[in-house]
Amino acid sequence: MKVLGIETSCDETGIAIYDTEKGLIADQLYSQIELHAQFGGVFPEVASRDHIKKIVPLIQNACQQAGINLSDLDGIAYTTGPGLIGALLVGSSVGCSLAWALDLPSVEVHHMEGHLLAPLLDDEKPKFPFVCLLVSGGHSMLVDVQSIGNYQILGDTLDDAAGEAFDKTAKLLGLGYPGGKILAELAEKGDKKRFKFPRPMMNRPGLDFSFSGLKTAVRLTWMEEIEHPQFNKEKDEEKLKQDIAASFQEAIVDTLVKKCQRALKQTGYKTLVIAGGVSANIELRSRLKQIESKLKVSVSFPPLKYCTDNGAMIALAGALRLQRKQEHNNKIRAFPRWSLETLQKA
Ligand code: KG4
Ligand code: ZN
């Protein structure tokens, strides 16, 4: 079965074709980063308009890459939420119309389920059940994953998501957009012990997160340092940014690692999966790998290029559902907010 996946929930147009026998046979991605950089963040209307421009050429490229025609497809999967409504509607309209025109089954995919299942794109696939740490620009969750579609949220963020905290801190330091990745690169050069930022909710029981206090602590430190009479912008600023970035990243990573360990203990599961944009963070990946031997568990990440938004994870999630005859034909819909726990079990 060959399934075309369409992802347009935010600022990436992702188109891929997943073959249930051969794996991924086409993968096309267009990132709108340059378009939004001038605004310092995603401009929703600009995002929708650009998806409209790119979606059809990318579908054509994907077919060419796979060496197939549209008529060789067996199904269409498209992200219908959560995300930006205008952007979602582009993928939903094109996906649904294509399915009508080709008389194919179509399936609506939950963006976070796409992230959560992305590690299955790897040759070494994690085994169910597992705990998933889902950390992206809009979500920070720990999920009990019993099987496809059978998800129970164990912990959620009470305010900012982890990626959002990375992005906002990067903005404060004037690092540009998209901030998370730039901040993480800067952190590699910094001293993570220079500032002791709070580890929010770490000493309280439970699996929820909160990152807004950390963000405030970083802001206060930054202001205090740059307003210090002996601060020399030319001489000290670069080092200060590196050390704040490293100390901030350490605080976030410490919190995420601790909560993952707690979730593994609570569920008794032996597999931990990390997914979503923040799972691309090298420090987080290496710290979580260290708990593998300590706790005798296995820790999986998606291949690096499938951590952030892409069409491959949507094609895969859609294929797994279409294989189980879960179709949503003839519906052009978009859900800006949509809980993972309401999904149909596969
Ligand atoms: O999953 P994703 O591409 O989009 C959403 O579904 O939100 O995640 C984007 C988020 C952004 O907040 C970005 O700053 C963060 O992932 N991110 C990172 C890194 N790469 C992307 N955060 C920390 N370290 C990274 N290397
Ligand atoms: Zn995402």
Overview of this protein structure:
With 346 residues, the chain is an alpha/beta fold. It folds into two domains: 2-117 and 306-342, 2-Layer Sandwich (Nucleotidyltransferase, domain 5), CATH 3.30.420.40; 125-301, Nucleotidyltransferase, domain 5. 43% of the residues lie in helices and 18% in strands. It has ten helices and ten strands. Helix 5 packs across helix 6, helix 5 (162-172) packs parallel to helix 7 and helix 8 (233-267) packs parallel to helix 9 (282-295). The protein is globular and about 70 Å long. The protein binds 5'-O-[(R)-(carboxyoxy)(hydroxy)phosphoryl]adenosine (KG4) and zinc ion. Zinc ion binds next to helix 4.
Query: Helix amount, in percent?
Result: 40-55%
- CATH superfamily descriptor of the largest domain: ATPase, nucleotide binding domain
Q: Helical element count?
A: 10
What structural category characterises the helix and strand content? Answer: alpha/beta
Domain module tally: 2
CATH architecture of the largest domain: 2-Layer Sandwich
Parts with pLDDT < 50 across at least 5 consecutive residues: none
Write the CATH fold name of the largest domain: Nucleotidyltransferase, domain 5
- Report the portion of residues in β strands: 15-25%
List the helices and strands and how they pair.
Blueprint: E1 2-7, E2 12-19, E3 23-31, H1 33-37, H2 44-66, E4 75-81, H3 85-102, E5 106-110, H4 111-117, E6 130-135, E7 140-147, E8 150-156, H5 162-172, H6 179-187, H7 212-226, H8 233-267, E9 271-275, H9 282-295, E10 298-300, H10 312-323
Parallel strand pairs: 1-4, 4-5, 6-9, 9-10
Antiparallel strand pairs: 1-2, 2-3, 6-7, 7-8
Helix pairs in contact: 2-3, 4-10, 5-6, 5-7, 5-8, 6-8, 7-8, 8-9
